[in-house]
Amino acid sequence: MRILITGGTGFLGHHIAERLLEDGHTLTLLGRTASSNTPQRGLFSLRCDLRHRAAVIAACRGQDAVIHAGALSAPWGRWEDFYAINVRGTAAILEGCERFGVTRLIQISSPAVVFTGGDHQQTTEDAPYPRRFSSAYAQSKALAEQLVRNETRVASVILRPKAIFGPGDRALLPRLVAAARAGRLPQVGTGQNLVDLTYVRNVADAVALALHRSAALGRTYHITNNEHVPLWPLIRRVLRELGLNDRLRAVPLPLMLAVAASMELRAKLTGCEPLLTRYSVAILGRTQTYDISAAQRDLGYQPRVTIADGVAHTLGYLRQEVR
Ligand SMILES: NC(=O)c1ccc[n+]([C@@H]2O[C@H](COP(=O)([O-])OP(=O)(O)OC[C@H]3O[C@@H](n4cnc5c(N)ncnc54)[C@H](OP(=O)(O)O)[C@@H]3O)[C@@H](O)[C@H]2O)c1
User: Which of 51, 116, 179, 239 has CA atoms 20 to 30 A from the CA of 37?
Assistant: First the structure.
């Protein structure tokens, strides 16, 4: 297949590309930083901003499938930017798919769209969107999902991978490690919360499956490693392996949320990004597990790389980053 991967210059997009090249597909990687130098066979680059509607529509010409992983993915930012990139960018992709007869769209979304800020246990895909979204990012991803679901002329599958980690990640573990190195990482809450994480290669496998399974069309799937991991013991282990101090001071969750709320207020007044947001605090302090039985049933998805192996692969990368 000829496949356009938006976000092909990013962490997940890179791993999806690696996986789909193995299947012999011809890929075009779209991003603002796409390089013109892609010497590998079957690989093309397209420098394009998702805010440029006409260019995004044109990028869909001649493609059999589009994997839409490009997004502004951040805990903080201006709503106008989230809307322009994540919502209007998705609208342009849908328009391109419809105009040029693209036979399948895989929309990369996130379980953040149903995150209420409280604990989640084995949340299924039919959980409603919350009355108040936990972040502008979550709200924009939910609006994008709704656009995809409502566009019945484009055959689509929505995947919601939870907390992706692996080599090349710049967000999840690297940010925690950087905070710990600076002596600014407290344990949020009791340290007993369980989370679902997803090794990046498993997400790429889910994408490869979603390209071909007709039972998945028009549906939404949670994707995780299906291992409910105690988050703080894992973070401590990673810090120890990197030779960093793993003795973290525990701060009660309500106190951390109050501190984050005041930081957000100050950030709104000053325009500077806050160190903490209530969203990022809740993500670190709450239990969040998601049911993946629908993906197992319809996609035949099974996480092939375990958390233990995924962490081992990631540690090599993190060691280089720390150096
Ligand atoms: N990481 C996670 O834990 C996680 C969890 C759930 C869902 N997701 C979703 O997975 C997808 C990939 O995220 P990631 O973790 O790989 O993040 P990332 O490394 O930050 O990648 C984001 C990608 O989006 C592209 N992008 C951002 N703004 C753009 C714009 N204006 N125009 C064109 N391209 C733009 C970036 O390319 P350029 O910078 O080259 O423009 C980059 O390729 C996103 O849809 C995210 O919402 C991630």
Answer: 51
